[in-house]
Amino acid sequence: MTVSRREVLLRVGEVGGAGAALAAMQMLGLSIPTAAAAADFTLPKSSGNGRSVVVLGAGIAGLVSAYELQQAGYRVTVLEARDRVGGRAWTIRGKDRVIQNDRPFQQANFSDGMYFNAGPARIPSWHHVILGYARRFNVPLETFINSHHATGWDFDGKVHSGRQMIYDLRGRMGELLAKAIDQNALNAAMPKDELDAFRQFLGFYAFLDEKGVYRGNASSGYTQWPGGYTIEGKAIDPLTLKEILPSRGAAFPQIFESIIDMQPTMLQPVGGMDRIAHGIYEQVKTNVRLNTPVTGIRRIGDRVRVEHGGQATEADFAIVTLPPTLLERIPNDFSAAKKAALKKVVILRSAKVAFEAPRFWEADGVYGGLAWTDRLNENVLYPSSGHHGARGVIVGAYVAGWTHENTPEAFTKLPIAEQIRISRESIEALHPGKSKLLESPLAVNWGQVPYSEGVGALWGNGPGDSGPRGDGYAELLRPEGPIVFAGEHLSYLGLWQEGSAVSAHEALKLVQSMAAERAGKAAAA
Amino acid sequence: MTVSRREVLLRVGEVGGAGAALAAMQMLGLSIPTAAAAADFTLPKSSGNGRSVVVLGAGIAGLVSAYELQQAGYRVTVLEARDRVGGRAWTIRGKDRVIQNDRPFQQANFSDGMYFNAGPARIPSWHHVILGYARRFNVPLETFINSHHATGWDFDGKVHSGRQMIYDLRGRMGELLAKAIDQNALNAAMPKDELDAFRQFLGFYAFLDEKGVYRGNASSGYTQWPGGYTIEGKAIDPLTLKEILPSRGAAFPQIFESIIDMQPTMLQPVGGMDRIAHGIYEQVKTNVRLNTPVTGIRRIGDRVRVEHGGQATEADFAIVTLPPTLLERIPNDFSAAKKAALKKVVILRSAKVAFEAPRFWEADGVYGGLAWTDRLNENVLYPSSGHHGARGVIVGAYVAGWTHENTPEAFTKLPIAEQIRISRESIEALHPGKSKLLESPLAVNWGQVPYSEGVGALWGNGPGDSGPRGDGYAELLRPEGPIVFAGEHLSYLGLWQEGSAVSAHEALKLVQSMAAERAGKAAAA
């Protein structure tokens, strides 16, 4: 009996519901797998049944936890150390104050409508959970420009456009591969007809001439730009492989956009990243206590007691979303294994420097996107929206170890003034004569931001990338009795808001199952 | 004597002005060449001195001509056949009527705020002239999403994500090249240390294992998407080269984004492409006569007489921006060579089909961008803005010979209903079960749009691409006495609004020099 594709789908649909049908469609190649289903998380209605939960931290993980608990009928208290919600999703505006440990006080001086996303700035379009909350709470989104081929790549003291670095690499690689094929070095790799077809494609793909030579291409830019009537474009002379890859740092921007979290389309909330946190906050506001740093986390029988400023909040359960570094220092009665695991998490301590300026980069054809450099500032981010507006906030340094072996340490050990100077100098190299237009600098060193002390756990998110997490990761996930844990560091989407949200979902499932178990026991008693 | 870079710049700056200094900086590798200077075009103030110019056509070339002439003190009359300006920059909204030669009447049925750019839809960030007009007339711009790695590529009956097609190609190419290097087939191509360094880079760039094998990578997508706690991502199995390139058509999307006019960042006016034309129109409105098709173009001594509907407009000069196909049919006394050249221009007759729908594509992680197929509809465009809004306009067919050898002819010879059916079917393959949500279809076949009859001249814009233009191109540029010509077809930016604008600038320079010559003669007389 032959079963048609349609029959398979209908049958699977009957038995396993829409999710199973989708999985089957994906198996049959009828649909592209997506992460969309994750956005549908919800706890069973009224399952909270009045039980209480104290949530530590009003970042994304804490706010998501509080919202979902509240929806399910739990009583929730959120304790937040700062005077604002959002945690690392921190957007700086106007005259906002920037206080950092062991750093001079800084005050922002941005014009109306200008803002600086000191923390996360972009959302990949497959991060369905955080996007789902944005949608639910009507947070308007716009496109974040991650990739822009007109920005400068400044390596080894020379600035080339991104487009030249990208497409000259393609040309040079294609040229080498064509040479190998033409010299019959790859005859064993594929059937001859396939190899011939691929060789033909290669000429087209890598802009090779009939002899397989790469002589440059307009994809890499022009020296004379095409115009009206007889003004023909003249393609820029091609770079050699050595010029394209002068140093190890120059390799990174070549793969940056291939990282699945960095691929277009990327999104940002209109007006600042903290708009999503605020959208959730609006739902749970009455249960959030700001300016309430936690000073102790204790178990009392099967309940929890959280101390703060001489007071205490007791609850049936706790969801703790604090970064490991901070959590480890708060007096607690966690297991020795948990305490050891908290100590071992390696934290990324990145930094950003921002300026406000008139939009001089647009005259150079730059609208959003990233510039790259092997200078200590590593990365320059242009604003993704407000094109042709009067002014914009340009991030002159985003230091996280992208292109420079010794950052962020080498950068963050410098005085703020020096960090600003380096950022200015880099922008000057990209836009000669323009750095004098940079105003209102502001440097955020995350390792020194109180209640964050870093941007997250430095372990990979990729498949098979469990190695660096080691045994400590499983220990971090283990509840301490009625206390469960959440945060980006407890996900395979580390360093992303999505990771915070999905880790919260897992923590919520644990709370829910414990609550159900207790209800069962109570009923049996 | 050694001259420092700075000295060179200062000296060049003194003698040649800022432009020369910029050119020198580019020579010294201190700055990336840009096309920005082209945006500074202006005719000498008051140089028109009351002379009259009749402009034929109120598309971009005509509107730019009228505006610049008016600024320089010319008396201008613009004659436009249609009841609207913008020409091919046509945005369809609400209940707009769509009349096409030999086609049934169609009426749009779009909701408030929805629109369909039937003509141009995107602006590259280096098209400084058209962007300059947008800036000057305060036309708000937003990002156009050209490239989006989550869209589907539907070739040979199978849908894969763009990200998988792009990064599996990279992996497979890298694997072949690594094999050639590891087998010493490329030892002669580069010094050994450079080759070693490149081989190391290749492993990183193309996601190869230690043995140089490509086993797939998360860049190509996941079968299990990463999540919270222990949910590790599982990368999708890699495709073979044969699956990545099943047909010639599948090669095109692999190079699409490398075309310099298609590289990010791309832009669009908020609310529809015609906003730029309207921005210019607002400046010259009182001099534009709509509903005025031209029926004759005559020379009277050194002046021009343009006939329309029994009337005539006389002027010192004319700027004719009509497409060659139309111009050729209007009675005129052009040279035989010009008439022959007009007949020979090969015109692209592309087509688009649009629908309005709820944004079902966002659940599949698609926010803007293009899907590709070897079906007759070739290309699907998702809206670049209004993310998470209730509805959007999706272009279900953009047929221009991208991926299918026989389009646009094979598509445009079909009845409208059949064009819509093919578009629906293609969207169904990309988003199973969702095509039933597509409403209010509208098909624009440019070959049959009155007063356009195509989207432009089909000759390449690339360097050295003068071949297909042949001798006819020079003839098309040649003024007929006081009559000069403009339009995208008279530029090396053919098919783009930028081409229309820069060709107008060249035409204006010709008018200006003729006017100056006549003024000189008059003064001498």
UniProtKB/TrEMBL annotation, chains A, B:
Keywords: Auxin biosynthesis
Gene3D superfamilies linked to this entry: 1.20.1440.240, 3.90.660.10, FAD/NAD(P)-binding domain
Superkingdom of this protein's organism: Bacteria
Enzyme class: oxidoreductase
Amine oxidase domain segment(s): 60-507
E.C. no: 1.13.12.3
Catalytic activity from the UniProt record: L-tryptophan + O2 = indole-3-acetamide + CO2 + H2O
Family matches, as PROSITE patterns: TAT
Annotated pathway: Plant hormone metabolism; auxin biosynthesis
Family that this chain belongs to: Belongs to the tryptophan 2-monooxygenase family.
Protein known as: Tryptophan 2-monooxygenase
Organism the protein comes from: Sphingomonas sediminicola
Lineage: Bacteria, Pseudomonadati, Pseudomonadota, Alphaproteobacteria, Sphingomonadales
